[in-house]
Amino acid sequence: MPPPPPLSPTRVFAELVSPPFPSGTASDEPPRAAEGGPFGREVHVSGSAELSAGPDRAKVTVYLKSRKGEAGAARGSVARRLDYVAQTVRQRGGISENDVTVTKNFSRIDNAYKMEAEICIIFTDFGKMQDTCNHLVEKLDKSVIISSPHFYHTIEAVDALRRQVCVSAVRSAQQKAQEVCQLFGHSLGKPLLIKEEEVKESEGHLEDHTDNSSDLFSFQQKLQSATIHVSSRVFAIFEIKGEKKRKKAALIKGN
Q1: What is d(CA 202, CA 116) in angstroms, rounded to the nearest whole number?
Q2: How far, in Å, CA of 197 to CA of 7, rounded?
Q3: CATH topology of 42-54+155-206+214-241 equal to that of 57-152?
Q4: What is the CB-side half-sphere exposure of residue 248 using CA atoms within 13 A?
Q5: CA 246, 250, 255: angle at the middle one, nearest 5?
Q6: Which are the contacts of 226, defined by CB distance < 8 A and separation ≥ 6?
Q7: Angle, nearest 10°, between helix axes 71-93 and 126-140?
Q8: Each residue of 233-254: pLDDT tens digit?
Q9: Quick check: helix, strand or coil at residue 186?
Q10: Counting Cβ atoms within 10 Å, is residue 99 exposed (0-12), middle (13-18) or buried (19+)?
Q11: What does the mean pLDDT of the chain come to?
Q12: Angle 158-159-165 (CA atoms, 0-180°, nearest 5)?
């Protein structure tokens, strides 16, 4: 008679484990772990979660320049517009001085003086950002150049997302373990081990482009391109409790 074909591998998502009792140990006493602490029946589970978050910051750069025959005229032209930009950013964008960086460059070309200024602005409110930029274009027209917004995440925002997705994966594992225990009439005990086994991160992207500040993207496409996705997979071991209580209840009832 030919031997039976080998069984195909099966992925185990949850496992009830009852460690063997060492020789000389009473059957009603749980064995001792290698560390010296008690352990009994366990449930081994895995849990996973995936979350995403849009960018929490946007950087916009405003360019100003003037070329005049006199140095004072070139400086004054840029200075007036620079003051107007700063005032607009404060009033409409609600931006503090800490979120604004100004760089100035003064040079002489042939018989003329050239004054340039760059204002880098960090926005947290994207609606106010759009309103501010639209207002500057309307009032200053061609005398100002405004870059497309560059969206990004702060380190604090990314760390918060990582923690959140890890906690969600642990909750998933705990819920799975609890349902497995309930299926067999047990109660879930305390966690004995929780280990994050895998973390994956990716940023949303659009075909053929990697810079979300490109003028070819719409506003929503830029937000989508800068959205970050984080997934986490954890392994957890929980103790199973309630076995002794049932045994004692059965003994009392029998007596």
Answers
A1: 38
A2: 28
A3: no
A4: 5
A5: 150
A6: 54, 55, 151, 152, 153, 203, 204, 212
A7: 150
A8: 999 999 998 655 555 555 555 5
A9: coil
A10: middle
A11: 83
A12: 90
Place of tokens 């609606």: 127
Please give the Cα distance from 50 to 153 (Å, whole number).
18
- What CATH number was assigned to the domain covering residues 57-152? 3.30.70.330
pLDDT in tens, 53-92: 999 999 999 999 999 999 999 999 999 999 999 999 999 9
Strands (E), the chain: 14-17, 42-53, 57-68, 100-109, 112-123, 145-146, 150-152, 187-203, 228-241
The Cα angle at residue 143 between residues 152 and 92, in degrees rounded to 5: 50
Output the CA torsion sign for 224, 226, 227, 229. Answer: positive
Look up residue 219 and give its DSSP letter.
H
- How far is 53 from 159, CA to CA, in rounded Å? 11
Tens digits of residue pLDDT in 2-19? 554 443 433 445 555 555
Q: Is the pLDDT of residue 225 over 70?
A: yes
Domain ranges within the chain, ordered by starting residue: 42-54+155-206+214-241, 57-152
Say which CATH topology domain 42-54+155-206+214-241 has: Translation Initiation Factor IF3 (3.30.110)
- Written as six digits, the tokens of 60 are 């916009």
The Cα–Cα gap between 210 and 149 comes to: 14
Residue 40: burial class (beta carbons within 10 Å; 0-12, 13-18, 19+) = middle
